[in-house]
Amino acid sequence: MDKIELHAHFSGCIRFTTLQELTIRQFGQDHEINFKKCTTLEQCFILFAKINSLNLKLDDIRRIADEIFQDFYNDGVTYLEIRATPKKGQDFDQLQYLNAISDSINKAKFNIKLIVAIDRAKSIEEAEKTYKLIKKNKIQHLVGVDLCGHPGVGHFLQFKPILQKFRDLGYKITVHTGELKQQIEENNDVIDFKPDRIGHFIYYTEEQLNNIKNLNIPIEVCFSSNLFTTNMQPNCHPVKDFISKGIPIAICTDDTLCFNTTITKEIQLIQKTFEYSNEFMSQILKESLNYKFKQE
Ligand SMILES: [Zn+2]
């Protein structure tokens, strides 16, 4: 089976043991993370708070990147698009951060591309800064831009002009949408923009789903992530409807750290839940190769 990953966040894919080590290095043994994997949403937020509180060095970023890429490689992934929100650290600025990830990509044993993520919970000025950074500097392996962050904060329309500017530079666009019920209205604005892909899309109207189908917009399905954050029963997940309606999908992890998952686990979980045959599953995975932002 061809395994690719199109929706994985850099910070959400740090190895648990590495996060633990970096946390203890900075805050001491007392601040050890006292669970092995997240079983509640609160624990996910604890992990993200830990990650954001770390004052990292460029060598840490290189190490984290190398490990993430090694983990996907070990899982049999042959093509990865990793998304990262530009960050600053002890001895690096946002450009050096992105370049460090690019350097690790150069050393990886398989094909990896980079997506820059815009956090909708941050200001437009911050997004504008990222745009200027990307416009001014050639970032190796960069193929697309993602709108992500807390779905309950900000609105797609605020970021639409910036996304259009990225599109004008030639980058592909993916948007996290329909993660919360309250985003159903917002979905219309996202669909009007015709992103190259959308992420999640678990809350929508039938009309919106038909529009997605007619526009042939692939959905990045993050099965475990959705079950975890919504308490949805596996067999109620809409991926079954996407597949039966012939809507293009790619099976993704979102955050391997938070959901203690891998692409292989996600594929198996969907296959088992909906009792798809091996042949059918292989076909789905083969089709998802068409939704890469960079076709070789
Ligand atoms: Zn995501």
From TrEMBL:
Pathway: Purine metabolism; purine nucleoside salvage
Record key words, sorted: Hydrolase, Metal-binding, Nucleotide metabolism, Purine salvage, Zinc
Boundaries of every Adenosine deaminase domain copy: 3-292
Entry keyword annotation includes Zinc: yes
Family: Belongs to the metallo-dependent hydrolases superfamily. Adenosine and AMP deaminases family.
Segments passing through the bilayer: none
Protein name listed in UniProt: Adenosine deaminase domain-containing protein
Biological processes annotated in GO: adenosine catabolic process; inosine biosynthetic process; nucleotide metabolic process; purine ribonucleoside salvage
Originating organism: Paramecium sonneborni
Pfam families registered for this protein in UniProt: A_deaminase (PF00962)
Domain of life where this protein originates: Eukaryota
Upper taxonomic lineage: Eukaryota, Sar, Alveolata, Ciliophora, Intramacronucleata
